[in-house]
Amino acid sequence: MKAIVTGGAGFIGSHLVDQLLDLGMEVSVLDNFSTGRPENLSHVRDRIQLIECDISIPGKWVTEFKNAHWVFHLAALADIVPSIQNPDSYFKSNVVGTFNVLMAAKEAGVSRFVYAASSSCYGIPEHYPTPETAAISPQYPYALTKRLGEELVLHWAQLYQFPALTLRFFNVYGTRSRTSGTYGAVFGVFLAQKLAKQPLTIVGDGTQTRDFTYVTDVANAIVTAAQSDAVGEIYNVGSGKTVSVNRLVEILGGDTVHIPKRPGEPDCTFADIQKINRDLNWHPKVSIEEGVSQVLENIEYWRNAPVWTPASISEATRDWFKYLDQPQGQK
Ligand code: NAD
Fold this sequence. Notes:
Elements: E1 2-6, H1 11-22, E2 26-31, E3 48-52, E4 70-73, H2 81-85, H3 87-108, E5 112-118, H4 141-160, E6 164-169, E7 172-173, H5 186-195, E8 200-203, E9 209-210, E10 213-214, H6 215-227, E11 234-237, E12 243-244, H7 245-252, E13 256-259, H8 274-280, H9 288-297, H10 310-316, H11 318-324
Parallel strand pairs: 1-2, 1-4, 2-3, 4-5, 5-6, 6-11, 7-10, 8-13
Antiparallel strand pairs: 9-12
Nicotinamide-adenine-dinucleotide binds at residues 7, 9-13, 31-36, 54-56, 74-78, 93, 97, 116, 118, 146, 169, 171-172, 178.
């Protein structure tokens, strides 16, 4: 059986590749290395096909879909501030790219298509834990483009009975999480600060909570979804728990400093995972303590990551405050 993994050189994609190889599958990775790294696949390099290509531009890469059974579409640009500054590149990679991958997969007649959607589509949810039926309210172009890609996938499933489904990931963390130059997810920021013996920058008072989901659990949810016969469905993928940033800091240890709370961010992310529990019999396995200890065992990965300070974060998030910190009516 052959699987295509777009974005397979990235954080989640590389863990998915590991699990697909464990299942004995033939794996082709499509990636343009914009944020992904060849090193994420160095341990399996001789066991996979690695094609450097940009999925936002149709090209020779579509021939790779011939004889493919499963397609996992994870390639996307995935940061908040750059999406506000460069909505065009986000639209191309995340929406046009999804369209191109869908077309290639449909043309090849694949039997499964799994889309990596984002819980950011819920914006600031009204209900916790948040079910798949919650209102859609993207707050920034990254969230919007991921939602538009998801709409395409669901539409293809509905119109063409295309065997696709989408998984909405919540705050994924773990080894090989992105260390690109961009200010991003809390884990990478904290780990680089810890290595550099700098204070951990807590946003607001740190009581905000996140549904931190360990990356191997997410990869396992993706494989489980491919093995199911669900079509046109949306499933939340989360730990089903929510942990405060203060608790995370307590587990990681080290000095701290507080920086201003940001607009457009929920105080809590918390997935309702009853649907995926029930329909796919998928359950997360890795506790936050186990996950953090795995990450700390591999902390050297973040050695060359940018070390953020309150001043550099303030500079890097200027556009975040500029565009999102307005009363709803003025946005
Ligand atoms: P990542 O940046 O590590 O991986 C994305 C990969 O896509 C990278 O390897 C990048 O080089 C590649 N890519 C980007 N644009 C491309 C293009 N035009 N052509 C070819 N390759 C391209 O990010 P990740 O955290 O592993 O995220 C994987 C997927 O999961 C993304 O679709 C993301 O939106 C989604 N997701 C992630 C999280 C999270 O917490 N990490 C949460 C929700 C959804």
